[in-house]
Amino acid sequence: MVTVVSRQGCHLCEVAEADVARICADLGVEWTTVDVDADPDLRAEYGDFVPVILVDGTEHGYWRVEEDRLRAALT
Q1: Within a 13 Å sphere around the CA of 65, how many CA atoms are in the beta-carbon half?
Q2: Which domains does the chain have, with CATH numbers?
Q3: pLDDT of the chain along its 75 residues, tens only?
């Protein structure tokens, strides 16, 4: 499962979500988004680093999706 920790109005978040959606669709992997500002714990941990990509709850990367690396982690 892939989670994108993002923020409303964040252009990099929109790009990351589109990349994750495409990659996950190709691989048949579920994904979701979480609003960093809706959870004080997430905001404290990731507030300045969004978007953050989590794979199975573990931080995989932030700011940009590294497609080859994400695909490798999901296969």
Answers
A1: 27
A2: 2-74 (3.40.30.10)
A3: 999 999 999 999 999 999 999 999 999 999 999 999 999 999 999 998 999 999 999 999 999 999 999 999 999
| H or E element that contains 26 | helix 11-27
Instruction: Output the six-digit token pair for 18.
Output: 């589109």
**How is residue 45 annotated by DSSP?**
H
Q: Which amino acid is at 19?
A: D
Look at the pTM and tell me if it is higher than 0.70.
yes
| Selection from 34, 9, 33, 35 nearest residue 21 by Cα | 33
